[in-house]
Amino acid sequence: xxxxxxxxxxxxxxxxxxxxxxxxxxxxxxxxxxxxxxxxxxxxxxxxxxxxxxxxxxxxxxxxxxxxxxxxxxxxxxxxxxxxxxxxxxxxxxxxxxxxxxxxxxxxxxxxxxxxxxxxxxxxxxxxxxxxxxxxxxxxxxxxxxxxxxxxxxxxxxxxxxxxxxxxxxxxxxxxxxxxxxxxxxxxxxxxxxxxxxxxxxxxxxxxxxxxxxxxxxxxxxxxxxxxxxxxxxxxxxxxxxxxxxxxxxxxxxxxxxxxxxxxxxxxxxxxxxxxxxxxxxxxxxxxxxxxxxxxxxxxxxxxxxxxxxxxxxxxxxxxxxxxxxxxxxxxxxxxxxxxxxxxxxxxxxxxxxxxxxxxxxxxxxxxxxxxxxxxxxxxxxxxxxxxxxxxxxxxxxxxxxxxxxxxxxxxxxxxxxxxxxxxxxxxxxxxxxxxxxxxxxxxxx
Length: 446
Fold this sequence. Notes:
By secondary structure, the chain is of the alpha+beta class. The chain has helices at residues 15-20, 24-32, 118-129, 180-186, 245-252, 263-266, 275-285, 295-314, 317-332, 346-360, 395-407, and strands at residues 39-43, 53-61, 65-71, 80-88, 93-98, 104-109, 136-144, 152-160, 172-176, 207-212, 221-226, 363-369, 381-385, 427-431, 438-442. It folds into two domains: 15-116 and 171-212, no CATH class; 214-421, no CATH class. The protein contains eleven helices and 15 strands.
């Protein structure tokens, strides 16, 4: 039996076919698009290698992007293929081979005027965000306050001792041939993707990004999505505040309370503060998947997975990642948004502030295999997503929110409807051994 084709030349795809998918101006754009030309997605052709043919399924959308799953199982929907391609200038031909996209999702910009292009996203990720997780040095602004003297600020290089890039998603740019975006738009609600027919939008708007697929697999794994947010108190919070910045924002704008946990508890290493939350998260993700379990078996199974999550976040790789994010938060934003306008090193401080806010808006995806409950050697996989480098246009919005929190005293006021903040735990009534008298103290974790 003949081996299946592994390249487009084996499948007898013609140069005329690939060139015919472009207008002439687009073909030239492609030939000149050195950095982002390596992978392409196009409508499947006759005799396409079976290993290269996929279909798309809508997965989710955010304010700026839409995510599509790439599925290879038998289907009747419109088929597409992914190819690694390059333009041979000497021979003036288009060479290619089958691309590997198994276990990936495709991220596509919604295409609105203020949304970043793929090129901008990739540039910000590789040049600004990724270095924060590589072993090496980063430049920050250091502040020294001397008694009786003016505050001194100066640039300082600080070291990142360990490489933590394993927690970052590999991002692969994909050139989307004409027709791909139209098909993707048909899988979403009207208006989700902006019109992509303007020739001037090519190739900036005809790009997508391949990311690892962290989706859960029913019957095999669950995936928890956590927003770490601010892993320390705001530098602009008043002295003695009883609420951290994220908990204060929860009072101002309540959101996802059923899944909420104070970020300070998340990074505390205090397992007692995480058990109830972890089991609730696991139970929500397992909804409907444990119908064959007895009540006791179901509770034990959820508790076992919850224990794995807590261990990962308090003593495992998850704790390593969270403490690194907290450290970055502290060194990148040492003075808060309210110091930005008058900062003597405004350019450097502003860039670092944008990086800090980028990290505060990231998502942590934790994929837990079911068998991890019984076999600790089956690894939990964690990846950070949503790491698009924040624009300087956000400064006014960040400042406005901080000023509103301060004006309404939301770092301190008792609203009666606020989530428990790890920054402040109410006194607990305890009885000392051998005494009938109650003693009050603020709870401190072991």
